[in-house]
Amino acid sequence: MTTTTADALRAWAKGIYPSEAGVELLIRSGRAVYDGAPWITRDGDIAWIDVDELLRETGAWSGGEQRLVRIAASGCDSLVRPRCDGLIWPRVRYAGVLTV
Fold it and tell me: Domain boundaries in the chain?
């Protein structure tokens, strides 16, 4: 059975709350998660996000879309490396963003 890109990203982020929230934001944005996106790498039923590529490639998007991507990327990036220079929001704040 082949999984969708969204399901593959959810599997990658599972169990790490900031990453789960970041992936959901990107999926629900309707623009950032699609087959062939240059910042998404797939390996079978797992996919992951290259956060640096995501931020670089979305530079021409609207200001609101860029802010959403930066918030989501700060959570997704916690799987790759700890960040002290970006937006790091506690789990409670992500819950508020997802409900908006």
Answer: 5-99
